[in-house]
Amino acid sequence: MRQFLRGLGFLLIVVATILLSLMMASHLPFAAEESRVARLAERDPVPAWRAFHVVLEGCRCSDALRAHLASRTLPGYRETILVLGRDLEPEAAWARYGLQGVPWLVLIDPQGRVRYSGGYTASPGDPSYQDQSLAREVQGGQLRSPLPAFGCPTQEDVRRKVKLPSWIR
After folding, report:
1. What is the spatial distance between Cα 21 and Cα 75, in angstroms, rounded to a whole number?
2. Domain-by-domain residue ranges, the chain?
3. How many CA atoms lie within 13 A of 120 on its CB side?
4. 54: nearest Cα among 110, 93, 95, 92
5. Domain 28-156 has CATH 3.40.30.10
6. Is 106 helix (H, G, I), strand (E, B) or coil?
7. In whole angstroms, what is the distance from residue 135 CA to residue 141 CA?
8. Rounded mean pLDDT, 69-92
9. What pLDDT band is residue 34 in, cutting at 50, 70 and 90?
């Protein structure tokens, strides 16, 4: 009986590890090609502090972020929410702006220079969005290392590779 319970415990650990790995597979940290991210400034060419929030329709991480964005403002910034799948095709986000995944935050100064390009939180599933503190720091002249961006890929071939059953997402 003891050996059976030990074997069952081992099996449960293996199954739990596999399920957790599958759930995290769609939440890998993504990157952006910095030289292309600056093109976002062309979407709102007014010389002011600008915040671009790039999200993907149907991505739960993006949906949670959109609810957060609707509940607050960034004083001193012109904000644009770019919804991939509605405002722009996801593949075009990679081709035009070099974005591998979303949600993605880009802060641009009045001269059109990217001052921040990265994620909103330090870990996947963290509901403590740091966009407001990032915006204040950047506007105050502080250089900030980008946070990782955990969410959904913009490229179709990557989305197919990490496609998970709906009961896991």
Report:
1. 39
2. 28-156
3. 27
4. 93
5. yes
6. strand
7. 10
8. 94
9. confident
